[in-house]
From TrEMBL:
Pfam families listed in its UniProt record: LicD
Domain LicD/FKTN/FKRP nucleotidyltransferase span(s) in chain numbering: 24-246
Protein name: LICD family protein
InterPro entries: LicD/FKTN/FKRP_NTP_transf, LPS_cholinephosphotransferase
GO terms for biological process, alphabetical: glycoprotein metabolic process
Length: 268
């Protein structure tokens, strides 16, 4: 197998994104750049130089349509595949679109779907009441921690505390069960209907008060440039990035905060 350079890894990730965008266009589905990928588009017009992943999001209706299509045939454009815990081919509660021609290794996790991937997050409803929003995110955060620990690598972590504590708590997470945690996250994220509440956000994988916005603002879209290509995102991207990264999001962070997924990848 040929080991890929960081530049080649990013080229494969971009190809997954472009092919998934074509997939969405074919079915009339809206996909947005979000999180660090949107920050990269705005600040660098492409990948954040030290980053090595791609994040996109979809409103729950569009997301569910992708799931329905994938149930019949999860592979598209020859070697791209839609994976999800409900298909028993992913450890995560959200869609990952993978490149089947690659093999991947990640430092901190034991994930059986060892391909280069992009993340596709569902955007779900939130209550208008901030205290109810906070309670929902608190519930999600607990289950998400269990979910991540249930397949984490013992003794691995970015801090000494995590390296020491992980072996102690991983057995309890495994007792709860990965599938049970994913099912609970999927259920919790769909507690509210954004068409009724008027608020939408990344409930499943986001944090309280960050990736949240009014439903009407979310569905108003605009274009951003990423690696020479045009992609959709929410028109309220400035307030979205400010909530997520702070008002100085255009500033380059210090070296110690320039972290990535520590990916290694090969062509199969």
């Amino acid at each position: 197998m040929k080991k890929l350079t960081q530049k080649e890894i990013k080229k494969h990730l971009l190809d997954i994104l472009l092919n998934f965008q074509d997939f969405c266009d074919d079915y009339g589905l809206k996909m947005y750049l979000c999180a660090g990928t949107l920050l990269g588009a705005v600040r660098h017009h492409g990948f954040i130089p030290w980053d090595d992943d791609i994040d996109v999001c979809m409103d729950r209706e569009s997301y569910q349509k992708v799931m329905e299509i994938a149930k019949k045939n999860s592979v598209f454009n020859e070697h791209y595949k839609i994976t999800d815990f409900q298909f028993n081919d992913s450890s995560y509660p959200f869609i990952k679109v993978v490149d089947l021609t690659t093999k991947m290794s990640q430092q901190f996790e034991n994930d059986e779907a060892d391909y280069l991937w992009i993340d596709v997050f569902p955007m779900d409803g939130l209550p208008g009441d901030k205290s109810l929003q906070k309670k929902l995110y608190q519930k999600v955060a607990i289950v998400r921690e269990i979910q991540m620990l249930s397949f984490a690598k013992a003794g691995q972590g970015r801090t000494l505390a995590k390296k020491i504590l992980k072996p102690l708590v991983i057995p309890f997470a495994k007792m709860y069960g990965l599938k049970r945690a994913n099912e609970k996250l999927n259920q919790l994220s769909q507690t509210y209907d954004y068409n009724k509440t008027g608020w939408i956000g990344d409930v499943m994988w986001g944090d309280y008060g960050k990736e949240t916005m009014r439903t009407s603002d979310y569905f108003e879209s605009t274009k951003v440039n990423f690696e020479g290509y045009q992609f959709d995102t929410m028109a309220c991207w400035d307030s979205y990035l400010t909530k997520l990264y702070g008002k100085n999001y255009m500033d380059i962070p210090p070296k110690e905060k320039q972290v990535n997924h520590c990916l290694q990848a090969w062509l199969r």
